[in-house]
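Model it.
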Amino acid sequence: MAAAYERIADELRAAIRAGRPAPGERLPAETELAERFGRSVPTVREALRALRDEGLIEKRHGIGTFVRRPRTMARRSNLRHQWEKDRARAPREQRARAGATERDTGLASEELVFQARYRECPADADLAGVFGVPEGTVLLERDYRTRCAAERAPFSLVTSYLVRELIAGNPDLLDAAEEPWPGGSQSQLHSVGIELDRIEERVTARPPTHEEAEELELPPGTSVLVLRKVSYDIDGRAVDVADLVLPGDRTELRFTTPLERW
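Modeled.
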């Protein structure tokens, strides 16, 4: 037999999914819900906690509890890399029409807000090993955040690394003010004569840090997907290393593997 708080949660869940109350609307106060269901306030709080952990509602300190608005999904496919390569040498006007985020989310460019931050940093043992360079080699670290203009949380937390010496031939690649770069990283690398041969991606999952959960606005208990992407050029060199933290509640990873015919 279901516990009292589970029965309350079931009824509220059904109402929310039916649009009563609608996304963004405030739920009645805990005391009002307790009176409606004929239960104690602690029992109602337990029911609300269950719905919050499912990501259906959110509590705003000092304001109340609201139905959580559905977040825009990002469906990231491995086919995006060939799509980006096919566009890397296209005219700027064509590259500027849409990027990988538009492809993943179905949103138009004007519906997105993009931020980039650059800084130089020394390669630690991990990155030096991937790039095949001595520790301390100067890297360009690039932090990217892209979000839907109607939402506050970004689709992912992206940190990309390039060997500074490798891209220094084009000063624009060292300037965050040039972002967003039409055509993305592959087009940037093409501007210094680098063609990619393959991209390797490794995906793991873990609980988020406090900072990650806060920035991504994750419901309690939601895991993040951690993606390490290494891009290799046609000479076999690792030329770009990117670490992505993806919210588990609104990210779908799709892998398509073309098979050769017998």
